[in-house]
Amino acid sequence: MNFTFSQRKISGLLAVVPANEHTFLEEMSRFEFPLARSLKLKQVMGYDKHRIVDGPVCSSDLACFGIENLFAGGLLGRDEFDALLVVTQSPDYLMPPTSSVIHGRLGLKQDMYCVDINQGCAGFLVGLFQAFFLLDQPSVHKVVLINVDVLSRRISIKDRNSYPLAGDAASIAIVERSADTTPIHANLKTDGTRCDALMIPAGGFRLPSSPETAVLEDSGDHNFRAKDHLRMDGTAVFNFVQVEVPPMIEALLEAAQSSMEEVDCFLFHQPNRFMLEKLADQMKIPHQKMPSNIVEHFGNSSGVTIPLAIVHNLRERLLAGHIKACLAGFGVGLTWASMLIPLGPLDFCDLIEFP
Predict the structure, then answer these.
(1) Cβ proximity of 14 and 352 under 8 Å
(2) Other CB atoms closer than 10 Å to residue 93's CB: what's the count?
(3) pTM of whole model > 0.85?
(4) What is the per-residue pLDDT across 317-333, written as a single tens digit (0 to 9) for each?
(5) Which domains are present in the chain?
C-alpha cells in the first residue's frame, strides 16, 4: 500500500532512555556461555550496552517524563496540541488505553483526540502515517506522537538470545503542517500469516496469564522462557528482512522518482548491526549512510530505534539544516513500512535519561 503526503513535518524530536545501563558481557556472564563466543557476538552483531527500566516502570512513566521535560523547557505548550498518539506493545493496562493514562497524568485539555496504536518495529512509521492523516482535519493543528516500549519486562532474564540486547525507550515527536510542498512518499505491507515469528503467546484473551504460563521452559538451546515472555524465530525474522525490505525501498524510491544516491541518510529499525550491514550491502548503500549503532549503545527498543538513531547520530545536523531521509521499520506483525521524508531543521532534537 502506497501513501503520498504533502505539507507535513516533524518539527521536534525527543528520546528518553532509562539511566539503568548494563553491558552485554555483564549480562552474558550469567549464562553458561563461552567468553570467546560472547566476544565474537559483541563484535559481529554490534552488541555492547543496553538501557532497561529498573523496577515497575511503565510506558506512561517514560512518556510523561519526556513530555513534562518539553513543557518545562518551553518547547511544547500544555494546550498547544490537539491529538495524542501512543504507539506501544507494552501498555500500562489492557484497559484503559495508555494514551488516556498519559492524558490524565499530564492534565491535558478534554478537547483532544487520544488513541493507542498496537505496533512494534514499524510502529514509528505507522504512527507518522496516523499523525499525517489527522492533520487533514482543520481542528487538528499539532500532533504529539509517542513511541514507547518497556519490553524488557516481558523478556525472560534467562533467555540469552533476547534479554542481553533488549532496550527500553520512548520518543516524542511533534508533527504539524508545513509550508513545504515536497511530496512525502511512503508504503506499508503486512503478512499476518507469519505473525508467530515474533510474539508473546500469553497475556491476552486467547491465552490469559496464569501460573502455568509463567513456568519457564527450556527452548532446547538452554534458553529458558515462559509463554508470558517474548519469543522470536530469529532465522525467520532475518530472512524476512533480507527478502522483503530491499524491494520495499526500491518501490518507495521508484514511486518518488528518486535514487539511492539522492538520499542523505537511511534510518532503519535496528535489531543488530549485522542485519543492517547485510541490508546495506544488498542494496549497495554505503555503511556510513545507514547508522547501525543504536543497539550498541541502547539495545533494541523496537520502533523507537528509528527516532533514537535520529537524535543520537544527526542532532547537530538537523538543528542547523535539513536532510533527505529514508525511514524504514520491519518486524512484529509481520509488518514492514518505509518513508522518504525531508527532515529538519528541527526546533529540538535531544536525548534525556529517565529518571
Answers:
(1) yes
(2) 11
(3) yes
(4) 999 999 999 999 999 99
(5) 2-177 (3.40.47.10), 184-346 (3.40.47.10)
